[in-house]
């Protein structure tokens, strides 16, 4: 399958590497037209306000709001997918959750953890950098996949996967592989 990484900011190369390690083709997505050429899209981390500005500038918001393309958001990508952000309205509103930005602290408070992620594995390496967490799940359709210190850090809803951390900054590509082999593949199979 062909999986795109929104290449406006963030760890694009690292996500592409994880896609390739998963046995699939990775594509840097820089133009809206490319969305029609891919089976799924990864929204990388970075700074969510900047990411939203760039998505507006290049026309991605409208295209993605109106799309059922499977999407995987990491860190800032999770924030972009959320229905609500504490204190403001969400952006793409694909995951029926409320997120809180920087809830684990500032840059100096960054940390790594080994997570038990439902349906994937109990030893997933995760890097948290100014990470958000999922404050609230707003629907029974959202499946909680993992928590850290009683904070929700990974969820799935339909075609969408969101995590608070940066799986791409480790050598462990199983979260990306799960997105492709389960969420994207199921969507593609259902569309046939």
Helix/strand-derived class?
Answer: alpha/beta
Architecture in CATH? 3-Layer(aba) Sandwich
Q: How many DSSP helices?
A: 5
* Counted beta strands: 13
Question: What is the helix fraction of residues, given as a range?
Answer: 25-40%
Instruction: Indicate the mean pLDDT.
Output: 94
- The CATH superfamily is known as Class I glutamine amidotransferase (GATase) domain
Oligomer: single chain
Low-pLDDT parts are: none
Distance between the amino and carboxyl termini: 14 Å
Provide an overview of this structure:
One of its GO terms (cellular component) is glutaminase complex. Its EC number is 4.3.3.6, 3.5.1.2. With 192 residues, the protein is an alpha/beta fold. The chain has one domain: Rossmann fold (3-Layer(aba) Sandwich). It has five helices and 13 strands. Helix 1 (12-21) links the parallel strand 1 and strand 2. The longest helix is centred in the C-terminal third of the chain and has 18 residues, at 174-191. The radius of gyration is 15 Å and the shape is globular.
Can you give me a brief rundown of this structure?
Keywords: Glutamine amidotransferase, Hydrolase, Lyase, Pyridoxal phosphate. This protein is α/β, with parallel strands linked by helices.
